[in-house]
């Protein structure tokens, strides 16, 4: 069955957006390369690299909006954009999550999978910006504490991996609570709501989803730094898990009918 003109147009815009976004990442890596060779390793270089990453993420997100690929409401993030020494915990429906959040949060440092650090594109940028490699909990507490000590916001996806489209969030890993206890940092829940399956677990990078992809970023509860005891840590983990489940139940339906 032949494709309709509107479907052909959507496919053309989608695949063109992949090329443009790929070009943005190449420019991002090139800028990071320049920073590594012009500034000595240290706090200043990491701060400049984070601003550069935020700028290029913003370019990518604004382009996707203009091209009709992405429709993302992240106005609520303005309330925390300048807060520092803050642990952010977010659900993880898509690989686009970090890009979207980085475009709005210039002081954000993300705990990222170790496999991303080995990639030719992006891995070196993450190292330059002081992002934290996700190995074992004992190995990430030191770098995470350093990032928070540099007045950053530390983003973690406590599910540990992306969820599948239409599925409930996965079980919550306790690492974020241990970091908040260790650093005495407050914890802000970030809820990413989308009906789009694109780049969820099992979705191919090249498979076009329905367009535009609708996202809404909401702020959940803001928890004070937990006490350094097992009960306080467990209560925080349970509260965050409950937030994720409620958002999964109600947010997707709201977006589909908006």
From TrEMBL:
Keyword set includes Transmembrane: yes
**TM annotation in the entry:** 12-35
Q: Which CDD domains match?
A: LPLAT_AGPAT-like (cd07989)
Q: In which pathway does it act?
A: Lipid metabolism
Pfam families associated with the record: Acyltransferase
Domain Phospholipid/glycerol acyltransferase residue range list: 86-195
Instruction: Tell me where on the tree of life, at the top rank, the source sits.
Output: Bacteria
Alphabetized InterPro entries for the sequence:
Plipid/glycerol_acylTrfase (IPR002123)
Q: Which UniProt keywords apply?
A: Acyltransferase, Membrane, Transferase, Transmembrane, Transmembrane helix
- Protein name (Swiss-Prot/TrEMBL): 1-acyl-sn-glycerol-3-phosphate acyltransferase
Origin species, per record, is Acetobacter lambici
């Amino acid at each position: 069955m032949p494709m309709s003109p509107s479907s052909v147009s959507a496919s053309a815009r989608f695949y063109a957006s992949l090329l443009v976004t790929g070009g943005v990442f190449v420019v991002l890596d090139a800028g990071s390369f320049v920073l590594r060779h012009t500034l000595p390793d240290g706090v200043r270089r990491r701060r400049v690299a984070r601003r550069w990453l935020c700028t290029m993420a913003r370019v990518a997100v604004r382009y996707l909006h203009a091209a009709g690929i992405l429709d993302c409401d992240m106005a609520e993030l303005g309330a925390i954009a300048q807060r520092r020494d803050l642990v952010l915990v977010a659900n993880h429906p898509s690989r686009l999550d970090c890009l979207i959040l980085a475009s709005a949060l210039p002081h954000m440092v993300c705990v990222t999978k170790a496999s991303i650090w080995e990639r030719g594109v992006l891995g070196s940028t993450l190292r330059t910006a002081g992002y934290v490699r996700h190995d074992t909990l004992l190995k990430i507490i030191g770098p995470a504490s350093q990032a928070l000590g540099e007045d950053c916001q530390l983003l973690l996806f406590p599910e540990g991996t992306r969820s599948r489209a239409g599925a409930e969030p996965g079980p919550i890993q306790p690492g974020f609570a241990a970091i908040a206890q260790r650093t005495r940092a407050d914890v802000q829940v970030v809820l990413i709501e989308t009906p789009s399956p694109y780049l969820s677990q099992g979705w191919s990078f090249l498979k076009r989803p329905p367009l535009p992809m609708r996202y809404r970023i909401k702020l959940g509860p803001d928890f004070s730094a937990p006490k350094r005891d097992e009960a306080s840590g467990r209560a925080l983990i349970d509260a965050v898990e409950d937030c994720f489940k409620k958002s999964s139940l109600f947010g997707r339906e709201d977006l589909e009918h908006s």
